[in-house]
Amino acid sequence: MANSKFEYVKRFEQPDQLLPNTWIVVRLDGRGFTKLCAKYGFEKPNDRRALELMNMAAKAVMTDLPDITIGYGVSDEYSFVFHKTCSLFERRASKLVATTVSTFTAYYIHFWPTCFPDVPLSSPLPSFDGRAVCYPSVQNLRDYMSWRQVDCHINNLYNTTFWTLIQLGGMDAKEAEKALAGTLSADKNEIMFSRFNINYNNEPEIFKKGSVVFRDYELVEPGSHIVAEEADDLAEPVQQSKTQQETDKKRRAKARVLVDHLDIIKNDFWDRRPWLLS
Ligand code: ATP
Ligand code: ATP
Ligand code: MG
Ligand code: MG
Ligand code: MG
Ligand code: MG
Fold first, then answer.
1. Model confidence over 90-117: pLDDT tens digits?
2. How far apart are the C-alpha atoms of 175 and 154, rounded to whole Å?
3. How far apart are CA 257 and CA 253, in angstroms?
4. Positions of the region Disordered (predicted)?
């Protein structure tokens, strides 16, 4: 209530406004999913139902929060990128993180029965932690996204080989771990191919590349605009008028949210969708 003697407690709150004009990444991660996988019998190394559930929740988050320009998900984590001009909650970190994580969690629980119709949820329910990090340049942001996708690749190659040794090679976890100790990527590819006739390249894209969530907007033909290397040299993208920016923003917010399993390390993905980072 206004002006009560208790109101001074408000002054204990710490400001947590994020740096202006920076790309805000909110990354959430499933709490204790190693245990949760075992409890609900997730297929190893990749349970498709669980990945689809993550993607459905991410799509819903992006539909509810149009300030998010792109999301990237792998395993039990999702990164959401808020545009550098975002002013939602005055860019307060706790509000952005809490809203993103609780919206995601709510949809994860909501869609669970769709993805796991025969597996009822029970306490403790799935939950997620979250954090916000600011990236000042497009290069830093792209390096962040590349970092997550490289992580996806490295972990998936390891996990796929590890579980092949167990499921098809009859090893136990200790033996499989030992067999993989000190191996490089090429060795893991070789183990799978020579012993099990599995070509890692033929594994599903969703497992190898993770999931990118973005709005379906007109694609730009490669070469029809400034190339990425040149764009990197420009301190700022070409300025648009305020009304043009508003119109574009509305169109983008209305566009359908898509999930795909694409390479986000190379330039092509970004070159064809310059609006993502402008
Ligand atoms: P923390 O609470 O610290 O995050 P955690 O047990 O969730 O603990 P992570 O490092 O996040 O630890 O690991 C997530 C675990 O869940 C990994 O073992 C990963 O293989 C597993 N996992 C996540 N998604 C799937 C999936 N779709 N199919 C199979 N396993 C999955
Ligand atoms: P914000 O997103 O900024 O929090 P808000 O609309 O949620 O916006 P609050 O200040 O949190 O704003 O106010 C919550 C509103 O919900 C109040 O109007 C409050 O009276 C109403 N409300 C909350 N719980 C109940 C309830 N159990 N029964 C009736 N009204 C409720
Ligand atoms: Mg964690
Ligand atoms: Mg986790
Ligand atoms: Mg994780
Ligand atoms: Mg409220």
1. 999 999 999 999 999 999 999 999 999 9
2. 20
3. 9
4. 233-252
pLDDT band at 243 (very low <50, low <70, confident <90, very high): confident
The whole-angstrom separation of Cα 231 and Cα 175 is: 49
pLDDT in tens, 15-52: 999 999 999 999 999 999 999 999 999 999 999 999 99
| CA nearest to 86, candidates 35, 20, 139 | 20
- Could you tell me the residue ranges of all domains in the chain? 17-145+204-277
- Provide Rg for the chain, Cα atoms: 21
Phi–psi pair at 92, nearest 5 degrees: -75, 125
In sequence order, which residues have a C-beta less than 8 Å from that of residue 277 and are 6 or more positions away?
Answer: 69, 138, 141, 142, 237, 270
CATH tag, 17-145+204-277: 3.30.70.3000
CA 273 / ligand 5 centre spacing (Å): 28
Find out whether 145 and 153 touch, Cβ atoms under 8 Å.
Answer: no
Substitution site in 75, 105, 112 for ligand 1 pocket (most atoms within 8 Å of beta carbon): 75
